[in-house]
Amino acid sequence: MRKKNRILFYPLISIGLLLFIINGCKKKDDSNSTPTGQVPVLTTSAISNISQNSASCGGNITSDGGATVTARGVCWSILQNPTIADSKSSNGTGTGIFTSNITNLTDSTTYYVRAYATNSNGTGYGSNVSFTTLQGSGNTVTDIDGNVYNTVTIGTQVWMIENLKTTKYRNGDTIANITSNSAWAGTVTGAYCNYNNSVNSSITYGRLYNWYAVNDNRNIAPVGWHVPTDADWTTLTTYLGGEGVAGGKLKESGTTHWQSPNTGATNETGFTALPGGDRLFSTGVFYDKGVYGFYWSSTSNDASTAWVRALDYGYSNVSRSNNPKSNGFSVRCIKD
After folding, report:
1. What Cα–Cα distance (Å) separates residue 148 from each residue in 11, 86, 163, 234, 331?
2. Do 111 and 228 have their domain in common?
3. How many independent structural domains does the chain possess?
4. CB atoms within 10 A of CB 10
C-alpha cells in the first residue's frame, strides 16, 4: 500500500508544476500585450481667409493617444509634409478643435500645411492641405472705366479676383445700361445692369451683363485680357480636381456675402467667387444674389444659348450648362 501511495503522489506534483508554468506564461504574455503609448490622432482643417501674406487653418484632435497633448498648432512649408521643424503656430494644449493663423508668407506662392499635436510619446500630424497666396498689390489690371482689379495665378492661368464692373467697351463706347424689366427681356444687343438697379451692389458684386455684351467685338475686357472661353473654365476646374470640388476652392469663404451654409467654401485659390445673382431674360426680374454666382463664358452653344459656369451656396461643385444669351450674369476675365 505504501508503494502505491508514493506512485500516485509524484504525478500530482508533476501536474501542479505544469499548471504553474502555464499560468506563469499566460501572465507574461498578458503583460506583453498591454498597448504602449501612441501619438495624438488629428485632422487638418480647410484653409480660409487667404491674403497675400497670411491665411487661416487649424485642426481637430480626436484622440490624445493616451497622454496629455502638451502642444498643438499647424506647421507649413513650400514643400509637402511639413513638420514642427518648419514654420509653425502654437495654439494651446488638449484635444478638440483649434484655429491657427499662418503668417509671414510670400505672395503668389503655394504652401503646404499640416495640423500637429504633441504628447509625451511624440508628435502626430493631420493630412496635407495646400493653398496659394494672393498676388502682391502690384499685380493688378485696370479697365477702360478706371476700375482696378487684383489678380491671382491659378495653375497656368491668371484671373481677376473681382467681378467685372466696366460700363464701356474697350474702345470707349458705352454699354447700354438697361433698367426696365420689359426692355431687358426683349434686348438682343449688348447691355449691362446693376443688381436691382443698385449702384452700391455693383461695388461689391460687379455688374451683370448679357452675352451680347460679352460677345461684342468691341470687347468688354481690359487690354491683354479676355472673357474666358468654355475651354478656359474647363482648364481651371480640371486643375482644381474636377467640377465636383472646384466650387469650394473658388468661393469666398464665410457668410458675409454667401448665404449660409456656403458649403465647402475655402477660397484656397484666392479666386474669391461671389454670388452676384442673375437677371432673367424672360421677365427682366433679378434673382439669387447671395445664393448663386453665374459666370459667362464667351463660347456660344447655339443661336440662343451660351455656356455658363455656376456656383451654389449649398454645394461645393461648379456646374456647367448652357443658358439664354439674354440672361444677366457676372463676368470674370482671364489674362491672354
Report:
1. 100, 37, 11, 26, 15
2. no
3. 3
4. 9
